[in-house]
Amino acid sequence: SFGLELPPQWLTDLHRDTGGWPGILWAIGNALAHESCPWSHPIDQVVREHVDGWVRNEVLPALSPLAASEWVFRLTVPERLDDEIARRVIGDNPRTVLDCLISHGLLVQASTTTSRARTFVWPRLVRSALRSSFAAEVPRAVQKLDGELSDWFHARGEHVHALRHALSADDLER
Hints:
Layout: H1 8-18, H2 22-34, H3 43-62, H4 71-74, E1 80-81, H5 83-90, H6 95-103, E2 108-109, E3 120-121, H7 124-137, H8 139-155, H9 159-168
Antiparallel strand pairs: 1-3, 2-3
Helix pairs in contact: 2-3, 3-7, 7-8, 8-9
């Protein structure tokens, strides 16, 4: 609708990175259509910059006052979320926060597994934008939370997730 023609692989990549979230796709299309010369920079850089701005200026204000809390940012540290992981990250009753994020379309239901627990993921670009905001505001908090999650996943026998969080925490000794 913006008069842009993107190669099929770029469309596939955008759909994967956004989780197919229409709001992000619209923001990206709008951003590219209004860039004076969008192809003078790498497409992923243009997309990230505009998604970061869109998340800060449109998404977070819509979540007010929830967005003012550190909870939303802390929930971007794990790659996937269910009630148990959310409880580990933000405390006793994560259901209200998760339901708010779900109702705004910010969390997408992951493929169903044999588990009865609801499992959600962030669209990649939204998670990236929120997580970088969190890291910029409280740099050590992301690293500390990654280390805690690494220990927690390790204790549960989920070694792949433990390793990912240990690497994100830059703690190779874990």
